[in-house]
Amino acid sequence: MFRVIRISILLLFVHPVFAQKGKPLRIGIAGLTHTHVHWLLGSAARGEVEIVGIAESNPDLAKRYLTQYKMDMRLLYNSLPEMLQKTKPEAVAAFGSIEEHLAVVQNCAPAGVHVMVEKPLAVSLDHAMQMKELAVKHKIHLLTNYETTWYATNHKTFDLVTKDSAIGRIRKMVVHDGHEGPKEIGVNKEFLDWLTDPVANGGGALMDFGCYGANLVTWLMAGQRPESVLAIARQYKPQIYPKVDDDATILVQYPGMQAVIQASWNWPFSRKDMEVYGETGYVFSDNKADLRFRFKTDTLERRSALPPLAAPFDDPFAYFAGVVRGSIRIPPYDPSSLENNMIVMEILEAAKKSAREGRKVMLQ
Predict the structure, then answer these.
(1) Gap between the terminal Cα atoms of the chain
(2) Distance between CA atoms of 336 and 315, rounded to whole angstroms?
(3) What is the phi/psi pair of residue 174, to 5°?
(4) Is residue 10 scored above 90 in pLDDT?
(5) CB burial class (10 A; 0-12, 13-18, 19+) of residue 32?
(6) What was the pLDDT predicted at 21?
(7) Distance between CA 84 and CA 260 in Å, rounded?
(8) Beta-carbon neighbour count of residue 224 at 10 Å?
(9) What is the pTM of this model?
(10) Residues 197-217: what's their mean pLDDT?
(11) What does the alpha-carbon distance between residue 114 and residue 122 come to, in Å, rounded to a whole number?
(12) CA 242 – CA 82 distance, rounded (Å)
C-alpha cells in the first residue's frame, strides 16, 4: 500500500511542460504597494514573461524597487492608462490595494488586456461582480493569485481526496492562515497603510487571510456554494490595528461537511496549512512540501516530503502566460479561476456581515 501511495505522489509531478513558444508574455504591473510584487520582479528572469511597463504614482517607492532589481527607470509610468497606451501589454498583474483591483479591470478589459490580481479578488462582492461583468464582456482572463495555489502538498491533497477518494467523503476541513501581524513582521509603510485600512483592504485579517481558506475549500468542494456562513471577528490588538479586525474564525457549512477557516494576525509564527478529514482518513498539508496522511488501513500516520510542482505550475506568472497563450486550460473551479473566486467573495461578504451582525448568514 505504501509503495502505491509513494508512486502516486511521484506521478503527481510528471506534468507535461507547456513550453512558452515564441516571445515571452508582455506583462505590465499596476502598482507596487503590495509587496507580493517582489515575486514577479524576481521571477521575470525565468523568461516566461517580460515586464514592459510599471504604473506607480509613488516615485520613491518605484525608484527603490527598480534600483533593487536593476531595472530601467524608463519602464515607469505615473498612471495605468498611460502605461497601457504607451507599452501595449498583453496582460497586467495588479499589485496595488485590493480596492484598486476594480479600476485595473475597468482600464484593462476594454483594451483586451488580461488581468491577474493578488488575493482576494476584490474588496466586496459588488466590486467582484463588476469585474466579472467586464471580464466576460471583453473576453479577458481574470485570475487571482494565492501563494497556496503553488503548494505541491495542496495539489496532492486535492488528488487524494477528489480523484482517488482516499479518505471517502469530506466531513471537515480546517484551514489556518496568517502570521504575527503585518506590523510585527515588518511590512513596509506603503503596504501597511492600505492593508490596515477597512476601505482599501475591505477588512483586516478576515479578508487578508480568510480568503485562502475560502479558496481552498471551494476548490476541494468542486465549486459547491455553501449553505451558510457564521463568523466571529476580533480585535486583540486595537492599539496596533484600530480600524480593522486582526483575528477571524469563519464556519462555512455545506450539506454533510463543515469548513473551519482560521485567519489571524495573532499567530506566534507564520503559517499556511490545511487539514482535510474524511469518512475513512485524513490528509494534512503542513506547508508547501510536507504532507501527512492516514487512511483506513493504516495503523500509524505517514509522512511525505514532496518536490516542487513542475514548471509552469510552480509559478503564478508562468501559469498566467500559459493561460493567455492558450497552452494551459484552467480546470473548473481551479484556485486561480474567476468562478472559484466569485464564490470566495460570497463567503467573505457573508463572513463580514455575520461578524458585524452576530448571526449566521444563509447563502442558499
Answers:
(1) 41
(2) 12
(3) -130, 120
(4) no
(5) buried
(6) 52
(7) 41
(8) 15
(9) 0.93
(10) 98
(11) 16
(12) 36
